[in-house]
Amino acid sequence: TRAISPIRVPSLHAQGDQDKLVTRERMTQLASHFDESTREFFFHEGSHGVPTSLAKFAKAWIAGVRERSAA
């Protein structure tokens, strides 16, 4: 069998400590399919919802991705 290359696109993987729907193990398993140099993690204290702090972080992260892509 041929090895599958990791997905090489900027990716953000978020997970809440209280998330009962998606466990840390499942989130990490998904993230493992993405190239380590282009993936980032965001862990928060909440559950499955998107906290305000993530929204602020994501906006800054997206702006950085756009900057790097334009260069």
Keywords:
71 residues, alpha+beta, two-stranded parallel ribbon, flat
Give a written overview of the molecule.
By secondary structure, this protein is an alpha+beta fold. It contains two helices and two strands; from the N terminus they run βαβα. The protein has helices at 24-31, 52-70, and strands at residues 11-16, 39-44. Helix 1 links the parallel strand 1 (11-16) and strand 2 (39-44). The longest helix is centred in the last third of the chain and has 19 residues, at 52-70. It is flat and about 35 Å long. It starts with 10 loop residues before the first strand and ends with a helix.
Kindly estimate the percentage of residues that lie in beta strands according to DSSP.
15-25%
Termini Cα gap: 37 Å
Q: Judging from the principal axes of the Cα atoms, what is the shape?
A: flat
Radius of gyration computed on alpha carbons: 14 Å
- Main-sheet strand order equals 1-2
In total, the number of strands is: 2
